[in-house]
Amino acid sequence: MRVVRLILILFVGGLLTYLTYKMKYQTFFFEAIIWFGLILIGMLIFVWTVFKDIQLFKTEKRFSNFGLTLLSILFIAIILALEIQINNNFNKPTLLKVFYDGDYNGTGIDFKTDGTYIFDNSAIGLSDYSYGTYKIDGNKIIMDKDTIDNLTNLKYLEIRDKQIVEGKAELYLVQVDRLGNVIERSDEYRVTIDNRKK
Length: 198
Description:
The protein is an alpha+beta fold and 198 residues long. It contains three helices and nine strands.
């Protein structure tokens, strides 16, 4: 039975650790259901392991009997540490946030106040995240990469007013070349959060 518990702990703990790490780079719509199931199974295995280890310790009186319990706790600690790191990264203060709506897909860039960004390329319930750094000078942004995921010409960006209706303009982030000319057939990202003046 101890071998069965070890295999289950390694399988479920390893899978949860991998899924937690993967959350930094990709999420999908039905992920919560998978997480709920794995966490429930993991909790049952953990309770079963602790119970069995305590029973074994009562008969053998050796602290090594708690090896599987300690392994389970190690997996829990690693998963929590990864989760905290990912959440801290996503929850850093936002300087500027933009979004391009492409109907069934979309692209968002969250420019953080510390000079980093999170690039979210999403389509039908699936999001791919990329990370990098940027420099901002007024309305001009220079990215560390020109190509992210399947999108190109992202090195130079500029925030500009765009006339939506008569007398009403909104801020958009546009792709420009090194000289500031708008690149033809490029995406325009609507500014959804602007904390530059605060």
